[in-house]
Design goal:
By secondary structure, this protein is of the alpha+beta class. About 35% of the residues lie in helices and about 15% in strands. It folds into two domains: about 80 residues, 2-Layer Sandwich (Nucleotidyltransferase, domain 5), CATH 3.30.420; about 70 residues, no CATH class. It contains six helices and five strands; from the N terminus they run H-E-H-H-E-H-H-H-E-E-E. The strands form two sheets. The chain has a three-stranded antiparallel beta sheet with strand order 3-4-5, with helices on one face. The N and C termini lie far apart (about 50 Å).
């Protein structure tokens, strides 16, 4: 599907990123495709690839796939009007997580996590919040837990990170 979109947009040079080493190597012709269900896709891929001046397939390990997932999400969100030129994306890899670049204080001079910590501690919302904001606080609170006065972020591997005092 992605190659068809690129063809419709008159793309001449394409880099395809994938997190399946098997499929990328098969697309590059390094490995043979034996699965009966995939052989037709392989022929279709070869046919579509001939329509590009240059096409490259790159393997991205699954633990480095955040960028591919983010780009795929962006691609689905952006409308592409016909015959429009799309500037290439320039991507900078930062040496720290994006949340380290956020502003630490809200307009009321409290840290961003104050409402979450308060909700976890005493199950109360700020006075001026509406129903949607309460739901957001509850949803965000599910990603944290309190240990004494310290707020910890829950992670998928059950390890804690970045305590908030």
């Amino acid at each position: 599907m992605g190659l068809n979109v690129a063809i419709c947009l008159d793309v001449h040079e394409l880099i395809v990123l994938g997190d399946s080493d098997l499929l990328i190597r098969q697309a590059q012709g390094e490995w043979e495709t034996r699965d009966i269900k995939l052989i037709l896709y392989k022929y279709c891929l070869e046919d579509l690839s001939k329509r590009f001046k240059s096409i490259e397939f790159r393997y991205i390990p699954i633990f480095h796939n955040e960028m591919a997932n983010a780009l795929a999400t962006l691609a689905l969100m952006l409308p592409y009007p016909g015959n429009a030129y799309i500037d290439p994306l320039e991507i900078h890899i930062r040496d720290q997580h994006v949340y380290c670049n956020t502003i630490e204080l809200d307009p009321d001079s409290e840290p961003w996590y104050h409402d979450i910590k308060r909700f976890l501690k005493i199950k109360e919302y700020p006075i001026s919040v509406d129903r949607d904001q309460k739901r957001t606080i509850r949803r965000l609170a599910n990603g944290f837990f309190l240990s004494g006065e310290i707020l910890y972020k829950k992670t998928p591997d059950l390890m804690c990170e970045y305590p908030r005092s």
